């Protein structure tokens, strides 16, 4: 069945400009996160989008080169690094694979579930457990370095850095995350010999890494291609070669589908039908497997912590370009 498989052809700059024009007014319907005080200084009406194609194309529009912090989008990278280092069995002995109906920073299930482990690696508790694995052995700096190196190779620039103001702001006000971490240490989910403050430091710094929409689109495309090489360098080598196996890329992708948009993951998948991960700074990384990586910045977020205009832009793109993964138009 070929009809409507890709109704509007390739995604070009004009389509992106039209999206920004159409959805910028929706930034008024959200609010910039202010529980991390430094984030409150962001322009609420900013909106940008970048699209990286499997053919090597890259287009962007709006505030696509404005830098912002990764926040929860870092969770897909730390998960991937932990899966590489420890393997799925060890990682999922510490953190679950089930979506959560509670907010991303909720503590309630940690006491009520039979197994005390957090529901999934995309909520704060789950990501903090992952950070505890990466900071094990008292080496959080090495953990952060590996996260930065991985991102650098994917986005093709090695000046990735921690936004010190956001990091300090998170560290000063991160008592909810501190509570999650100490609680999980008390129940044995975080190992007894782990220094919780070092784990939190790694978590806060990973959340405070600076990126832009173009970087996110490249991260999206990396997962869209299952970690395989998209672009060779002039000397024939490939920076992304060997970062991750297709099997681990598949696990991260699946967790993004079920939990990437927090407690709105079900509605998001129904409407957009793509793997995605958002952050409270207003970033979203999403991708259409084997085709496109998307990077979005729209700091006005909704109650779940997702960019209001960003989600709508992805919904529009998915509909217009026939990207929904559960589609009657898939070719067999
Ligand atoms: N949803 C998010 O992006 C949360 C990340 C943020 N750093 C926090 O811990 O609260």
UniProtKB/TrEMBL annotation:
Belongs to the glutaminase family. The keyword Transmembrane does not apply. The keyword Repressor does not apply. Substrate binds at residues 72, 124, 170, 177, 203, 262, 280. InterPro entries: Beta-lactam/transpept-like (IPR012338), Glutaminase (IPR015868). It comes from Paenibacillus antri. PANTHER family: GLUTAMINASE (PTHR12544). This is Glutaminase. GO terms for biological process: glutamate biosynthetic process; L-glutamine catabolic process. Homotetramer. Keywords: Acetylation, Hydrolase. It catalyses: L-glutamine + H2O = L-glutamate + NH4(+). Its EC number is 3.5.1.2. HAMAP family: Glutaminase (MF_00313). Coiled coil: none annotated. GO terms for molecular function: glutaminase activity. It is an enzyme of class 3 (hydrolase).
């Amino acid at each position: 069945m070929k009809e409507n498989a890709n109704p509007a052809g390739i995604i070009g700059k004009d389509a992106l400009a039209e999206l920004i024009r159409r959805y910028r007014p929706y930034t008024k319907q959200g609010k910039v996160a202010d529980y991390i005080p430094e984030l409150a200084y962001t322009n609420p009406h900013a909106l940008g989008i970048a699209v990286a194609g499997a053919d090597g194309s890259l287009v962007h529009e709006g505030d696509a080169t404005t830098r912002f912090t990764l926040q929860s989008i870092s969770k897909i990278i730390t998960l991937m690094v932990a899966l590489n280092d420890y393997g799925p069995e060890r990682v999922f002995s510490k953190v679950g694979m089930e979506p959560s109906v509670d907010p991303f920073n909720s503590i309630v299930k940690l006491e009520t579930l039979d197994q005390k482990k957090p529901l999934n690696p995309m909520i704060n508790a789950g990501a903090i457990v992952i950070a505890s694995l990466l900071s094990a052995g008292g080496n959080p700096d090495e953990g952060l370095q590996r996260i930065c190196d991985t991102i650098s190779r994917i986005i093709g620039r090695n000046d990735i850095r921690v936004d010190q103001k956001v990091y300090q702001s998170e560290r000063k006000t991160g008592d909810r995350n501190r509570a999650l971490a100490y609680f999980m240490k008390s129940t044995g989910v975080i190992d007894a010999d782990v220094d919780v403050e070092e784990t939190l430091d790694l978590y806060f710094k990973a959340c405070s890494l600076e990126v832009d929409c173009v970087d996110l689109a490249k991260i999206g495309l990396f997962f869209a291609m299952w970690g395989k090489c998209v672009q060779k360098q002039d000397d024939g080598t490939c920076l992304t070669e060997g970062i991750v196996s297709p099997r681990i890329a598949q696990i991260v992708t699946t967790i993004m589908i079920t939990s990437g948009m927090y407690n709105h993951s079900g509605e998001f998948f129904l409407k957009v039908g793509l793997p995605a991960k958002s952050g409270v700074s207003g970033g979203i990384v999403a991708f259409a497997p084997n085709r496109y990586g998307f990077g979005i910045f729209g700091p006005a977020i909704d109650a779940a912590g997702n960019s209001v205009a960003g989600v709508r832009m992805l919904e529009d793109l998915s509909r217009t370009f026939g990207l929904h993964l559960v589609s009657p138009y898939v070719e067999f």
